[in-house]
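Trying the structure run again after the queue cleared.
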Amino acid sequence: MTERMDRRRGSALRKRPPAIDATRAESETGEGREEPVSPTGRLFREPHFSCYIVSVFGLGARVDLAAVRAGLEATLARHPRFCSIQVMDELEDATPKWVRTTVNLDDHVVVPDLEPTGTSADPDRALESYVSSLSTLPMDHSRPLWELHVLDFPTSDADAAVVLRVHHSVGDGVSLLSLFIACTRRAADPDALPELPTTGAARRSGPVYALPSRPLLAPSSWGALAALAAWVVSLLLLAWHTLVDVLCFSATATSMLRDPRTLFKGAEGVEFRPKRFVNRTLSLDDVKYVKNTMNCTVNDVLLGVTSAALSRFYFRKTGESGRKSIKVRSTLLVNLRKTPGLHALATMMQSGKDNGAEWGNRLGYMILPFHIAMHDDDPLEYVRKATKVARRKKSSMESIFTYWSASMIMKIFGIKAAASLCYGMMRNTTLSFSNMAGPTEQVVFYGHPIVYIAPSVYGHPHALTMHYQSYMNIIKLVLAVEEEQFPDAHELLDDFAVSLKLIREAASGKNTRHT
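Done. Tokens:
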């Protein structure tokens, strides 16, 4: 990053103002409204949880900066959270609130002056290094907490890229992705909003619990009685699984239960260290082929591919016997708030008001185990084990409890106590996992076709975070890694690609044997 960019940012990042005049901010906007920051949003303000979402959008055309600025001014910059600052009123309850302010796009649209020799010699590396450098830069909290970085040079995957960096207190990943997609239009119909998958599993970060449906009873039917008995048993299993998961979660948060020390686990203070973001394109068609063969979900297949890739990487690096089996655990954030539809989000940006649509972080946690072992003779075993784990987790209300308990602890004991428990939960697990579904057709961002979407996050105490993002017929796998611990992150990406290939070939062989 050049000296010119450093000078441009210097005034904003050198020193944060000690206080913000909320009255002045309200009078400038004419809104006169305040909204409290959500409990989860307040957690993301804590030093050990100061998380940022970083999303790279590959474009199929060079950037028309004037069109991008005009589009932002008419949409994203009008959203209530994107034109608000967080204000702490020490005279009342010391609870941070969102207060409207004036948005100056010059403070939020960043066009770095990069060395042409670097971007032309190795453009993929230049993009990767620039995005990674954002994990070392603070954000000026006297302004709305978002930035759009414009990188107008071609790479192997796209003609240009834009990078959206947003503080996690602004919203959860699912809501922010939906909001961004609401700024786009269908490539096939420039006047129409695109569509996102509508199923619950597709719109969340992973598997969620499923309450069993109560059967319709016919009093004289033995079949109906059997259905009622099965329904009661399923409810009892839901209660039992929830109890077990809650006890496990509590033991993890209080450091009574910890993951073993492995090469994946970050050292103390890893949340403050620079992260490198690397990505690889995978075939959604291959994943769906395995899904159909194994009669499971896309998420189950991705969990299995992850276990296989981590296993290949682990045993190659450690040289340990492939007959050894260990378990590492991932924290998985589950969005518990119903995400507004794209039309509601577009209306929200057009009017500058929430119009009754819910927004903000309402996140529960789920602890998900990953099986580390070698199954060279049967790669589909990774998918079988992952499917079993996912189905077990769907029969639990763990994420509901973790959100509720964190909110109660925050109300009773304060934000520091809640943050300490959440930090303990993440420090005693090994990695983070997320899977989100994007549009199934190509979309256009202010006149620029999007060719890929690659989101990630940093600021939490894990050295390895994995995100899967589907879009059209591809899946972008994004790894956020602590640079010193994973200097060979691209090798790990290779392991994911090879693992999917082997699992796909095994699924094809299974189908061949059955025909």
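The mean pLDDT is 85. Worth checking whether this holds up in the mutant runs.
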